[in-house]
Amino acid sequence: MSAQLVLPETPIAIEPGGHAVCDALVRNMALVADRFTFEVVGAPTTWATVDPPVLELGPEASGCVRIRFHPPRAAHVRAGNTPFALLATSERDRSSALAEQLLALNRFFDTALELEQRAVRWRTARYSLGVINRGNATVRLQLSGRDLDGWLVVDCDPVEMTVFPGAAEYARVHVRLRRAPATPEPLSFQVVARSDGHDPLLATGRLAPRRRRLGWTLR
C-alpha cells in the first residue's frame, strides 16, 4: 500500500439540498515521490467531489484533500446513515488505499394531498385522496374527515396509511348528507392527514346541494 488515508472519526451530518465538507489526511508511505488520484465511491458518488482530485507527495510526506458533499433535496436521497469511501490510487504502482465513513442524512418532510371527485349519486359522493410523499423518509398518517358546515358525514378508508419516499398511496373518501341543509349554498368538508411531529395536512372539497321533488341531493 503506497498511501494511508484518514477520515474524521464521526459520521458527517448533512441536510439534503445543503452542503457539507470533510478533510482527509493523506500520507505517502513510499520512500519515493508519488502522485495520487482520488475519488469518492458509494452512494454519494454523483453528488460528491474531491479537491484537489490529484495530489503529489514527496517520500513519506503528508497532505490533505477536501471532500465536498451536495446531496439534492429529493426522495431518492434517503434519510439515515449512508456509507461512502475515499479511494486513493497511486500513479507509480497503481496500488490503492481506501478509507470508509458514514454520511448522516437528515430527514425532510414534503407530503402533498390531492382530492379528486369520482362520483356523486343522490345523497352521497365518493372521492379519491392521493397522498404523495416527496420527502426522503417514510411517513405514517392518520386520516379523518371534517365537516365544516354541519350537514355532512365524511369517512376515510383506510384511516391509517404508510407512504414510502417517492411513492403515492390512495384512500377512498365517502361523503353523505347528514340532514337536509337550510339553503342550497355549497357545503364544504376537509380530509385531515396527521403525522407525529408535523402540522396536519388538509384537503378541502365542496359539494352543492340541490332541492328535488323527493328531497335534497348532492351534485
Characterise the protein shown here.
With 219 residues, the protein is mainly β. Helices cover 0% and strands 62% of the residues. It has strands spanning 3-6, 12-14, 20-28, 34-42, 48-51, 54-57, 62-69, 80-90, 96-105, 111-121, 124-133, 139-147, 152-157, 160-163, 168-177, 187-194, 201-207, 209-212, 215-218. The strands form five sheets. Strands 2-9-8-4-6 form a five-stranded mixed sheet, with no helix packed on it. It has a four-stranded antiparallel sheet with strand order 1-3-7-5, with no helix packed on it. Strands 10-11-15-13 form a four-stranded antiparallel sheet, with no helix packed on it. The chain folds into two domains: 3-105, Immunoglobulins (Immunoglobulin-like, Sandwich), CATH 2.60.40; 111-218, Immunoglobulins (Immunoglobulin-like).
Pick out its properties:
219 residues, mainly beta, Immunoglobulin-like, four-stranded antiparallel sheet
Mean pLDDT: 90
CATH architecture of the largest domain: Sandwich
N-to-C SSE string, H for helix and E for strand: EEEEEEEEEEEEEEEEEEE
CATH class of the largest domain: Mainly Beta
